[in-house]
Amino acid sequence: MSIAEAEPFHAVLFPHRSLTRRGYLVLMAVVAGAMGFAALRTWAIGAWPVSLFAVADILLVWGAFKLSYRSGRQFEEITVTPSEVLIRKVSPAGRVREHRFQTAWARLAVVRRDEDVVNLEIGSHGRAVVIGAFLNPADRASFASALSDAISRSRGRG
């Protein structure tokens, strides 16, 4: 048996965030600068209510990004061994939920619409857990293939 066969499958899934911290700061500076200028300009010409909306826009953009980055703290860990499939889901608040399935009985259900993988579930004995819901369809398809192979290999070693 090679070393690769002896190791369990382990994957950690994170939501994708395309904007880096630096990009976020630059974007917020541009938004705050543009809307701040608009607020000052409208205040100066006597249209002060418009200034309030400009400031509200800045706060709404900041709040939307804060919520987006908070949701980005969630992740899922999937481990496949010959005896079990362990799924650990960690929420943005840090709450951990674990789901365990015997590898011999675990089934991966892949739901496709057209060419896209829209849902992945691992289940057994009437229980099922959705995994990778925050992944894009291409990543879901790639992960489904790797996970299916890992479960098949682990069954052969059990």
Descriptors:
158 residues, alpha+beta, PH-domain like, 4-stranded antiparallel beta sheet, 3-stranded antiparallel beta sheet, elongated
Fill in the CATH topology of the largest domain: PH-domain like
What distance separates the N and C termini? Answer: 13 Å
Portion of residues in beta strands equals 25-35%
Helix content: 40-55%
CATH architecture of the largest domain: Roll
Overall number of strands: 7
Q: Measured on Cα atoms, how large is the radius of gyration?
A: 23 Å
Could you list the spans in which at least 5 consecutive residues all have pLDDT below 50? none
Average of per-residue pLDDT values: 89
Main β sheet profile: 4 strands, antiparallel
Topology as H/E string?
A: HEHHEEEEEEH
CATH class of the largest domain: Mainly Beta
Category by helix and strand content = alpha+beta
Number of domains: 2
Tell the overall outline: elongated
Task: Please work out how many helical segments DSSP would assign.
Answer: 4
Strand order of the largest sheet: 1-2-3-4
